[in-house]
Amino acid sequence: RAKSAGGNRFEVADAEADARVITRNGLTTALPTALDRGEFFIEYQPLVHLGDGSVRGAEALVRWLHPQHGVLGPDRFIPLAEHTGLIVPLGRWVLEQSVRQARDWRERHAGPAAAPLRINVNLSPCQLTHPGLVQDTVDILEAAGVAPDALCLEVTESALIGADDDLLKPLRRLAEMGVDIALDDFGTGYSNLANLRRLPVSILKLDRSFTQSMQQFPADPVDLKIVEGIVSLAHSLDLAVTVEGVETAAQAEQLRILGCDTAQGWYYARPGPPERLHDLALADATP
Ligand code: C2E
Ligand code: MG
Ligand code: MG
Ligand code: MG
């Protein structure tokens, strides 16, 4: 043990590490049955068109209402769910709920001015390698009566770095069906830009770190150049650019000027219950 190395600092670090292990174990035992107990719920965060400010859809973000710990964010349990394999049924549940939700929005929000709302769902790397992914997705869309082009699956850039053809095959199949694939957290994974051509993606989601560097107005000229370069490369490859983590009007304005297409962030709305999205979209379609 570190304790035998001497010094109080080690003891403190040790106690903290122990506490983390206990918390993790507490979550690990409760996690496998949490899905059956109905403890997960989904919040939706609007995706807003930067050009006209209209709501175009939402990203589904899963939460766990833990009986002792209260609401836990995905960063607290998704890694555990991946580790234990629960991510496959959990991911399927999120997809099913989200697609049904999208159908509900589309039915209730069918005015002439309204663009049909779309739904973005995050995919973990474990789901990508699971053989049921394509068929499950087809079944879920069919059962809900939702067209594939209403769905966007988000995969992180890091999950696709160095991806071979076997890993890309299910994504290609889905893309051919009309499902959009977005590269999430783009710009953090050191991926080869030329590699983008090989991937069946149609949307880049620019990581929040870029948005943060747009805090000042005008922003750092080098950061501006980098974002400008990414946007122009993306557009030349026919990819749309979504920015995440927009918290201020200044950020939204700079990113709009730089040519980004869609934005998401607290400036527009925090993730919330599905009715909120309906209200926002409806308010926005009413002149
Ligand atoms: P992500 O896909 O990059 O989702 C965006 C995260 O940024 C969300 O965190 C969202 O709440 C947060 N966010 C949105 N706007 C702002 C903003 O203006 N400022 C700041 N500071 N943050 C903002 P959240 O909900 O904690 O989710 C974290 C990550 O967990 C997601 O990152 C995604 O990778 C993962 N995740 C969420 N739901 C699912 C799911 O159903 N399946 C899988 N596999 N992963 C999920
Ligand atoms: Mg995402
Ligand atoms: Mg993201
Ligand atoms: Mg992110």
UniProtKB/TrEMBL annotation:
Residues 24-285 form the EAL domain. This is Bifunctional diguanylate cyclase/phosphodiesterase. The lineage of its organism: Bacteria, Bacillati, Actinomycetota, Actinomycetes, Kitasatosporales. It comes from the Bacteria.
